Amino acid sequence: MHGLNLRSRHGGTGPAAWAALTLALGPWCVLPAAAQSIAGDPKATEQWSPVPPLVSPAATIDAAPSDAIILFDGRNLDQWVATKDHSPARWSVSHGVLTVDKALGNIETKRLFRNYQLHLEWRVPKGITGEGQLRGNSGLFLASTGPGDAGYEVQILDSWRNPTYVNGQAASIYKQAPPLANAMRKPGEWQSYDVVWTAPSFAADGTLKSPAFVTAFHNGILVQNHFRLSGETVYIGTPTYRAYERAAIKLQAHGDPSAPISFRNIWVREIAE
């Protein structure tokens, strides 16, 4: 490069100068965009349809957008049933808040879903007692595939200064993936989960075609980044997949002895495949 003058007679670096540089450097030369000629029609790479649907955002960050399905708005449990027998859900609803009744067991949505975006808020009671997994334990099952705790669980737990195994703390994919961060607020304060669920798909014979994925935010902080699940949640052993088409969203009534947690403002947006 010594002695190569890229200046044109007008004081600039014109096309001739860039051509000289190309000859000097050979195949290793990458010219800046301004020095490259543009060929072809830019319209060939423009997409005009289909036009994305218009969705009105909520007036506040915690409210539901215009196309959301409201699962709990503080008034009743009309969208929910008991997991064990599909009778009407009977957890306590008071002052806009839904509180777990551990004696009654899990509840799940009447509707079945596939891929979706979910918003849910939950609160560990102030003054909670216990430690580890026995403190504010519950679960959000993104797909309830059977009775009891069958399905795919995002853990709910008091993880404020409460050590436990990391793939069992709040916002973990239970027994599969620890959260990327501990975003827990202290007991008595409301927490939020925002989850994008991509359901697994199966062939006609029940074999897995594509696995499930989860992206999740806890209190606005990314805690699961398109995590690939190994199968359904299991307490002991190795996760495996079982074929299903659509499934309910389930909330867990965990049997730990601590005071029950509460929920509010639950909504979902279905995502087209």
Care to describe what's here?
This protein has 273 residues and is mainly beta. The protein has two domains: 1-50, no CATH class; 69-270, Jelly Rolls. Helix content is 4%, strand content 29%. It is built from one helix and 15 strands; from the N terminus they run αβββββββββββββββ. It has one helix spanning 15-25, and strands spanning 69-72, 80-82, 92-94, 97-99, 107-109, 116-123, 138-144, 151-156, 190-198, 201-202, 208-210, 213-218, 221-228, 248-251, 262-270. Strands 1, 3, 4, 6, 9, 12, 13 and 15 form an eight-stranded antiparallel sheet that branches. Strands 2-5-14-7-8 form a five-stranded antiparallel sheet, with no helix packed on it. Strands 10-11 form a two-stranded antiparallel ribbon. A hairpin with a 5-residue loop joins strand 10 (201-202) and strand 11 (208-210). The longest helix has 11 residues, at 15-25. The relative contact order is 0.20. Residues 6-11 have low confidence and may be disordered.
SS field, number of helical segments: 1
- Series of H and E elements: HEEEEEEEEEEEEEEE
Major β-sheet annotation: 8 strands, antiparallel
What is the gyration radius calculated from CA atoms? 26 Å
| Name given to the CATH homologous superfamily of the largest domain | Exo-inulinase, domain 1
Low-pLDDT stretches: 6-11
How much helix, percentage-wise, in residues?
under 10%
Can you tell me the number of structural domains? Answer: 2
Strand content: 25-35%
